[in-house]
Structures are given as structure tokens and as C-alpha cells.
Write a structure and sequence with these properties.
single chain; alpha/beta; Rossmann fold; 3 domains; seven-stranded mixed β-sheet; three-stranded parallel β-sheet; 31% helix; globular; Lipase_secreted
Length: 358
């Protein structure tokens, strides 16, 4: 494993040698750290944070079962290193460009895109979601944010994001600065799904979108022929609802009026999970549309999700079976309201560059 100094300005992913895997990495085990460096994490691309952070390049596996590499940003709260839980937080990523990788977007010095029609800083940007991940840091947890598309920025690939997240946890457990904290890690994951597909209209990006190098040959065939092609049919099947049942308890929330991640699909997935014996806590949020659109509910529903995670981290009994409720808002739960109140303070301290956790 090699180390590199902190960069004063973040280079583009394409120009950054950190993401180039060393020769022979294929023979290493998944989760092996190939390279590391300390980084300065910024919130909203503008505000340097008081967070100890490093980036790890590690070996993982792609959707075809071949060796692959990905980067993660691992962070520790303020205070002495001691055994603490680890939260794996997967941010929203809606594109196949390297500048959208969390490891790039989180770095101080990453350029702000003022040409973006949705604004230079969007809710789908990891530099905005660090304000949610900071809640975990303020709880005293270590946090790992993986680049779920890997070094080639794959998008909507089956199994691969899971491999990358789990191997990112393995890498964090074996990273020297985190090792004393990682000995008794309680591993949890929080994943924010955007429910959207955004790709660049060039052939190279389209190929990376499905991780199919010969995708371009399908662009000129009729739609019916495209959908019935055995290769495409299998690719779509693999990218549909999960083909297996999770064995770990899950907390899931979705707005009834979510315009991006529609409730019907989530209902169907939860129904299948429950029919197969999974333990699922599912909250269907009924807030009026202005508060339960995809972006607002991701934020307003986070306090209840972090409350559930905290119960797991502190050893509360694991939920059994399925608990499905339609509620006015998960934010109205008393415990979630308490978390929401403390989270406001966390956000302010993060933006002001003050210490978190301990």
C-alpha cells in the first residue's frame, strides 16, 4: 500500500493517478487496500470540514465476477481513536462521469459547476449528502462512503454496487488509522436510492451505463427487437428487482407521492421480501406532495432512519418479521424529532468547520 499527500486542488478523475490500479492487483483479495491518501472533505463544495478523512483505492469485483477497483472516502469523528461502529453510506449518484464520484465531489477544491441547470450544488451531490453522513460522525461512528460505480463509473449494474460497498467495509477494517476503531466494528449501511437514470448521450457513456462494451450496436434497432434480444433481456432482468432475499434487517422509507421512486415498485419489492421471510421495517410517508417529493422526503425521512440505525449500533434487539406502516410523516415520531433537532446542530457545526462526535 502506498500513500500520497493531500492535494490543494482536486484534479479531475481522469487526470488523477490515484485511481490507476497498480500492476498485479487482480491477484489480491477483495477489500485489499491498493493505495491511500489523506484528504480534506468539504461540504457543499465550499465549506472545509473538521473531519479526519482518507481515500482508499481497493480491490473489488465487477458485475461479471472479474477483478475491479473502487475508491472510498473513510472518515473519523473528532477525539481519540477507540472501538466504534462503522456506517457505510452510499450517496446518490446519477451519472457516469468521474466528477460525480463521491470521492471526487467530497474533496476540497473540486470545481463547482455553475452551468448545471439545477444549480451548482444539487441534493444528489455527495458534497451535499456529507451533511447527512455527518450525523453518523456526530454519533461517534466511523463512516465509509464508497464510489459505487468503481473507477470506470458503471451505473445500474447488478450486484456490483453491493460488492463495492462490502469490500469498502473490508478495506476500512484493515486501514491502519482506523484499525483500533475497527476491531469491534458494528457494520451498518445506509443507502439513498435516487430512482433516476441520467446518462450522457455519447456512446462511451452508454456502454458504461450498462457495463456492456458493445452496447452501441443496439442503438439503431427497433424497440421491440431491442427488448427481445436475449442479451438485453438478461441485462434488464438482472437489473430488475432483487433475485434474492436479504438476511439482515432492513429499514426502508418511501413517499407515497414520490415522483422519482414510485411507491408501487417499493411496495412490490417489500411484499416479495416479506413473503420470503425477510425482516423489513417499511414506512410509507403520506406528507403532502410539496414535502414528500423525492428530494425533501430523503431529508425529512433521514432522522427516523438514523434512529433505527442507532438502535442497531447500540445492540437493541433485531426486528423480526415485517413492520409496514403508512404514516403522516416519519419525522413526527418522537425519537425522530429528537434526532432531527440534534441533526440541525450537526449540520451547522459541519458547515462552520467545528469538531464532530468524539
Amino acid at each position: 500500500m502506498t500513500s500520497a499527500p493531500v492535494a490543494s486542488a482536486a484534479p479531475s478523475a481522469a487526470d488523477d493517478p490515484f485511481y490507476t490500479a497498480p500492476a498485479g492487483y487482480e491477484s489480491t483479495e477483495p477489500g485489499t487496500i491498493l493505495r491511500s491518501r489523506p484528504v480534506q472533505v468539504a461540504a457543499l463544495n465550499l465549506f472545509p470540514t473538521h473531519i479526519r478523512a482518507w481515500q482508499l483505492l481497493y480491490r473489488t469485483t465487477d458485475s461479471h465476477g472479474d477483478p475491479y477497483t473502487a475508491a472510498s472516502t473513510v472518515m473519523l469523528p473528532d477525539g481519540p481513536v477507540h472501538p466504534r461502529p462503522l456506517l457505510s453510506y452510499q450517496t446518490a449518484v446519477d451519472a457516469v462521469t468521474g466528477m460525480c464520484r463521491p470521492s471526487v465531489a467530497l474533496q476540497q477544491g473540486t470545481p463547482i459547476d455553475f452551468t448545471n441547470p439545477d444549480g451548482p450544488i444539487t441534493a444528489g451531490n455527495a458534497s451535499a449528502e456529507i451533511l447527512l453522513a455527518a450525523v453518523g460522525l456526530d454519533h461517534g461512528w466511523a463512516v465509509s462512503i464508497p464510489d459505487q460505480g468503481g473507477v470506470n463509473d458503471h451505473f445500474l449494474t447488478p450486484r456490483e454496487p453491493g460488492y463495492i460497498a462490502l469490500d469498502g467495509i473490508r478495506a476500512a477494517e484493515h486501514f491502519d488509522p482506523l484499525t483500533p476503531a475497527a476491531r469491534d466494528l458494528v457494520r451498518q449501511a445506509k443507502d439513498r436510492c435516487t430512482g433516476q437514470i441520467v446518462i450522457n448521450a455519447d456512446l462511451d457513456s452508454l456502454g458504461r451505463f450498462l457495463a456492456l462494451p458493445d452496447f452501441a450496436r443496439y442503438l439503431t434497432v427497433p424497440l421491440d427487437q431491442f427488448l427481445h434480444d436475449p442479451v438485453i433481456a438478461e441485462a434488464l432482468r438482472e437489473r430488475g428487482y432483487a433475485q434474492s432475499t436479504p438476511t439482515a434487517p432492513i429499514y426502508l422509507y418511501n413517499a407515497v407521492y414520490d415522483e422519482a421512486s414510485t411507491i408501487a415498485g417499493t411496495d412490490r419489492q417489500v411484499s416479495e421480501y416479506c413473503a420470503n421471510g425477510a425482516s423489513v421495517t417499511y414506512r410509507r410517508d403520506l406528507f403532502p406532495f410539496m414535502f414528500s417529493a423525492h428530494g425533501p422526503v430523503a431529508v425529512l425521512g433521514a432522522p427516523a432512519a438514523f434512529t433505527w440505525l442507532e438502535q442497531r449500533m447500540t445492540g437493541a434487539p433485531l426486528p423480526q418479521g415485517c413492520d409496514i406502516q403508512t404514516v403522516p410523516s416519519t419525522l413526527l415520531d418522537p425519537a425522530a424529532l429528537t434526532t432531527f433537532g440534534s441533526a440541525i446542530g450537526t449540520v451547522l457545526r459541519t458547515l462552520l468547520g467545528l469538531p464532530l462526535g468524539g
